[in-house]
Amino acid sequence: MTDSKMNGAESLVHTLLANGVDVCFTNPGTSEMHFVAALDHIPGMRSILALQEGVATGAADGYFRMAGKPASTLLHLGPGLANGLSNLHNAKKAGSGVVNIIGEHASTHIALDAPLTSDIEGIARPVSHWVHSSKSVATVGEDAARAVQAAMTAPGQIASLILPSDTAWNEGGVPQGAVEMPAPAPFDESALDRAAEALDGSETLLLLGGTALTEANLEVAGRIAAKTGCKLLSEWSNARMERGAGRVFIGRVPYPIDIALKVLEPFKRIVLIGARAPIGFFAYPDKPAILTREGADILTLAAADADLTAALAALSTATGADDTAPAHVVTDALPERPTGRINLDSLAALIARAIPEDGIVVDESVTSGRAFSPATKSARKHTWLNNCGGSIGYGMPAAIGAAVACPDRKVLCLTGDGSAMYTVQSLWTMAREKLDITVLIFANRSYQILRGELTNVGVQNPGPRAIDMLSLDRPALDWVQMSRSMGVSAVSVTDCEDLEAALEEGLTQSGPSLIEIVL
């Protein structure tokens, strides 16, 4: 029913709350002031300020992964949206649901071509599954409900609702109540028998992604592996994986192309549940882009938007694995305590030892962290989040979202110094919201991954100017000063003993902390 005294922004907030969207990561401007005002007097919405839009969109990504429902973002016109595109790209690749509220000029103002006028729909489309501009105050509530439905479409989608400022300030808003959310698509039942027949030994692979990586689903996959003798792997980058002692461990398809080719070469048949057939991150001269062996039989039982839990349960029954004890259950044997100067092996061991029970690890370690997965498999039970889109600057914002979604769980953020500089403003939001996040900065003073890529693309003996473009040492970044200036306690460490002590303090205290690890 229309409330003649309710404006469009108020109907929007009421509708979001009615449909479970009660967190807003925001960086507003003039055209969004009525939305800001509505947040002030309508109870129920937690509003979290980010100092750069990429922090807001990345936080929404991390929030969805842990909460299982979307947050909203509030972005200022086309330029504000553009600042958030990188992490919207990452969120889209991760299958995260996000409801973007993007302010627009009043309809009467657009024709004047004011300085901030832009093609917002055109900017939004490449990183959105659903884009819509509200046409009148009377439809804002309905538009918002449709946006949430779109965001909740499995596995999760990016919905971008553009709100002209006159539709926000005009009276006549019509809030919508709770609407039905879409169910996941069915898996391909016609492929079930073929999938069960394909998994018949060590030359076959069950490749998992998405919600197939929950604790319960990994246990089912472990039963299938134990019964059939097939191998288990996940995609290289996973939105969320449950790991640690007592759970079924599966490795990841390696990132380095030569190693990935070697790992995948034995498999004649591959069954996909929630995963894509493995491909390289980039094209390289004289190397294949498709990582599976030539002639491999690849069968998709369930795509990422399907009911992956039902697909795994059906495959377990079809293979006769329902009563089989799962394979690959991890014991609780932690690595030995390392000492001395920090190297990548000792770093992995210390992280494994430090991960708290039920912790959340947000991983953007890029070069330094490639060995972390096997080293941490026996850590205490935890959740691991990867960057699925490859655009750096994801780690600290996603950690914010994870911490907001799960305030009772400790968050450990692993990131390189180059990656962290993209969204360094995240530290301020962590401090303001008093979030339980411990950030590890791997300070190798370079874009180290790109030094390796020079060789991969065939560049031999790069000269000093090329190396200079990949270096972060003139001047060196001082993470302790930067962190403290934004309200986050920080230390710098070079040896294992100091890192162990800093991790213990960071993960036991309340609020955020940062550890710069000089490599």
UniProtKB/TrEMBL annotation:
InterPro entries per record: THDP-binding (IPR029061), Thiamin_PyroP_enz_TPP-bd_dom (IPR012001), TPP-bd_CS (IPR000399), TPP_enz (IPR045229), TPP_enzyme_TPP-bd (IPR011766)
KW Ribonucleoprotein (keyword) present: no
Record-annotated Thiamine pyrophosphate enzyme TPP-binding domain positions: 377-517
GO molecular function: acetolactate synthase activity; flavin adenine dinucleotide binding; magnesium ion binding; thiamine pyrophosphate binding
CDD domains from the UniProt entry: TPP_BFDC, TPP_PYR_POX_like
Domain (Thiamine pyrophosphate enzyme N-terminal TPP-binding) ranges: 6-110
Gene Ontology biological-process entries: small molecule metabolic process
Pfam families in alphabetical order: TPP_enzyme_C (PF02775), TPP_enzyme_N (PF02776)
Keyword annotations from UniProtKB, A to Z: Thiamine pyrophosphate, Transferase
NCBIfam families per record: PRK07586.1 (NF005760)
Similarity annotation: Belongs to the TPP enzyme family.
Protein name (database record): Acetolactate synthase-1/2/3 large subunit
